[in-house]
Amino acid sequence: MQQSPLMAQAERFLSALRHCQVLQMRVEHADADGVTLCLPYSAQIVGNPASGAIHGGAITTLMDTALGMATLCVLPAFEVCPTLDLRIDYMHPGLADQPVYGHAQCYRVTRDVIFIRGSAYQLDPGQPIAQVVGTYMRLGKAIKGGLAFAKRLDGPLQ
């Protein structure tokens, strides 16, 4: 089956973010309804060594990335959209030895701001680890986040 252009763009975007590479994040799904990323469980993301629970910072990184990437699903062309505000409500700790999935969906797009919501979950999307809402500023198509970043988005996967 051929990969969709949106999925390919999402994978290029994720591959351009070094911290996401270090955490071994991957794109699970991307379409007009949003994006889902996967953060594999590893010793690097443990916040409580006694229980193996996942550090909140790893969940925050996953969700800020997922929400930021959800802009790809609603904009006609790539725009750099930095985080203006991010609220994360943690429901319960992430379980040891289980990957974490982050799903994000845009629910309103204006000329200047994109409004996005999502959740982080493990085994069951109906039992989220965290609920997230964020706002992202639209800077326009002319801003590319640096030449190297723009080339990685436009070029083939590395």
Automatic annotation (TrEMBL):
GO MF assignments: 1,4-dihydroxy-2-naphthoyl-CoA thioesterase activity
Domain of life where this protein originates: Bacteria
Keywords: Hydrolase
Transmembrane segments: none
Sequence ranges assigned to domain Thioesterase in this UniProt record: 52-127
Hydrolase as UniProt keyword: yes
Keyword Repeat carried by entry: no
Any one Gene Ontology cellular component term annotated for this protein: cytosol
InterPro entries the record matches: HotDog_dom_sf (IPR029069), PAAI_dom (IPR003736), Thioestr_dom (IPR006683)
Protein name in the entry: PaaI family thioesterase
Organism of provenance: Pseudomonas brassicae
